[in-house]
Amino acid sequence: MRTRIALAAFALFAAATAAQAETKILVVRSADVVRDSVQFKAAEAKMKAEFEKRRADIETQGKAFGDDVKAYQRDADTMSADQRAKKEKDLNARQVDLNFAQRKFQEDLQNRDRELTQDMMSKIKDVIAQVAKEKGADLIVQDPVFASPAVDVTADVLKRLNASAGK
């Protein structure tokens, strides 16, 4: 009876080992793919171009507002009560508008960044799937703590992704 159990356990272990030997696992370092891809660099430049003018406008408005606040603080003692009240109301309204513009800019920037990231990750996943099929992989592990260079396909994915950038 013990011999049968031992033989069954040995057979089960051998079958599991054989199945494991047939499984082909590869790895990809997605941060490297994103950082080094032509698409990421193009998307980053596009986003910078889209938002640089707005950023500069908001900074200019902020500087002008700061200058006006300093001028008000300097001249407040020489103003009449009506002039002070009018200037304070104007400065408060401008500050609210400036804060809103800054928040809206940050939201738009984050939303655009999220859109570009999702689009890029979709492309990267497609390329990873293509490379996995070509290499006969059963499993691709993304961003492992350690992986032998023999199973790392990051360079292949990056090469394929960059080649598809011109299409």
UniProtKB/TrEMBL annotation:
Cellular component annotations (GO), alphabetically ordered: cytosol
GO terms for MF: unfolded protein binding
Sorted UniProt keywords: Signal
Pfam families: OmpH
Domain of life according to the entry: Bacteria
Coiled coil regions, renumbered to chain: none
Family: Belongs to the Skp family.
Protein name as it appears in the record: OmpH family outer membrane protein
Biological source species: Stagnimonas aquatica
